[in-house]
Amino acid sequence: DKVLVELIEPYEVRAAKLREFLEDVNPSLRYDIVPLVDPYGPAVTDPDLQCLVVSEETRRGGEAVNKKRLENGLPELALYEILLMKDPDHSQNEEEKISSSSLRQRLLGTLLRPPRQDAALPSRPYVIGLTGGTGSGKTSIAKLLGQLGAFLIDADKLGHAIYVPGGPAYEQVVVAFGAEILNEDGTINRKVLGAKVFGNQERLKSLTDIVWPEMARMVKEQIREADAQGK
Questions:
Q1: End residue of a domain, out of 107, 127, 152
Q2: Which residues does UniProt call coiled coil (predicted)?
Q3: How many CB atoms lie within 10 A of CB 164?
């Protein structure tokens, strides 16, 4: 449930940076850095541990560790509470403390690796597929891309255009699913059509076999139009 989990660095990188930091602070100590594969880690099983460093926000976690240690027949650890350093440059949407979550927020829009050069990809039109669930921000991102000069193809609008009388899939859909899917004005009632196909894999496939090739054709036509406009 971390923010921008895709931008979290690999464990090996994080462990190496942590070791470098600790050895810079005090090179005379021995550091055992281990991955935590559960909420407790070795703190609830290692009899040699004596102290657990916590912050104000992780003290309850430390108390949970001690409860688990007692259940395992081990003595409680001393909980040493430290203050977290404040981030003087944090923005309104970031945490007040120095935080890896804030760092990941700042990485948005940064190239994490050089762009892949592929001779098979045309320089234009360069096609980006923008997908995501409801409320994920597709409309906002599309608007920003449009402001940058991108040619926008709205698949939802194409999907509606396919079903209108005279549209590329209208006749085929009516033949396949019957006149009962039509409104009085001859337009396809998408709710009635949806009730016929959803939950029925065979009927749904019949519909997509009609609609998707037509949508793909319309998208390709619009891509050619974008190319003609130099987009």
A1: 107
A2: none
A3: 13
pLDDT tens, position by position, 141-190: 999 999 999 999 998 888 888 888 988 889 999 999 998 999 989 899 98
- Whether the pLDDT of residue 100 is over 90: the answer is no
Question: Do the domain assignments include residue 126?
Answer: no
Count other C-beta atoms under 10 Å from residue 43's C-beta.
19
Residue with tokens 């004596």: 50
Range of the domain at 30: 5-107
- Which residue do the tokens 């991955």 mark? 35
Contacts of 43 (CB under 8 A, 6+ apart): 49, 52, 65, 69, 77
Q: Are residues 21 and 96 in the same domain?
A: yes
| Any domain includes 22 | yes
Q: Rounded mean pLDDT of 44-64?
A: 95
User: CATH code at 192?
Assistant: 3.40.50.300
pLDDT score at 125: 85
CATH classification of the domain holding 46: 3.40.50.620
Q: How many structural domains does the chain have?
A: 2
Counting Cα atoms < 13 Å in the Cβ hemisphere of 165 gives 8
62 sits in which H/E element: helix 59-71
Q: What is the pLDDT at residue 200?
A: 87
Decide: residue 206, CB within 10 A, 0-12 exposed, 13-18 middle, 19+ buried.
middle
Q: Residue 112: inside a domain, yes or no?
A: no
